[in-house]
Sequence to fold (323 residues):
Amino acid sequence: MKCRKCGETAVINMRQHKLALCADHFGQWVPAQVEKSIHKYKMFTPEERVLVAASGGKDSLALWDILLRLGYHADGLYLGLGIDGGFDYSGESQRKCEAFVSKFESSNNPEVASPDSWTPTLHILSIPELYGASIPQAAQRVQRGRGKPCSVCGLIKRHEMNRIAHDLGYSALATGHNLDDEAAALFGNTMTWQVGYLARQGPVLPAQDGFARKIKPLCRLYEREMAAYCLVRGIDYIYEECPYSLGATSIAHKELLAELERRSPGARQNFYLSFLKAKEEGFLDDHQVPPARMHACERCGQPTTAPDLCAFCRLWVRVKSQE
Ligand code: Q46
Ligand code: ZN
Ligand code: ZN
Fold:
């Protein structure tokens, strides 16, 4: 297969776009797509500073690389969750993020179109060091050994990412969700008609009092494209998934959609993009939940609907009581 642009050997064929590209042209095509999404969904402006939630996986490191190549001021945040899984999952993920950012620390890296001598920063935050328990330990104590730690993990990650983005003055928090992730989430929400979640699902979640704006610049790119981008760009990422992700419903939904995509190229993209279009046209306007009355958590100051402590602070009170 030949590259559509130059006739060299193609490294990827994107059937949904009827487009095959060589390594060079694919390496240029991906950032151009991300730039289009940033503009189309009004994610942020060149003057704004963005914080990338860096997990060490392919999507978040590709996202960070792309934003830097596009000349944006993008720093990273790595949250150490204290997950081992028999192979030091958290330690290994952190090392991938550190290795990634260290490439930019050597001055005058021509890949970073930064107008001054600015180099990206990786903020590292360790949950066990800060709060005295890893995610699995915290979950073990409050769930008494039942179930996976994912809901505890999600709550802690959301709170801490928001806290750092807000405290350090970033305009937006960027996550590496790709189109496969978004289509799987949409499928899950549709299966159970979670209309409230559907109304909130999209490439941008605007900032609210005390909550940072959340953006998903990779939302129009397939997962396999992100893996190919890392290969083309020489980005070393952690291949293993979090050990607790095994058997997740979202993975089953991804597999179903991948099968659909195999039979009908572009089906997954159509599913997600037609949803966004229908939303733009007002399909869910009657289901927008009016913003709840918020006040500051007595302990951490983040907005909450609860009368005293936010869910994050209540969680740690329970974890401490079980020590
Ligand atoms: S990191 Fe955390 Fe995920 Fe691992 S424990 Fe579950 S939620 S699976 S994105
Ligand atoms: Zn080419
Ligand atoms: Zn709180």
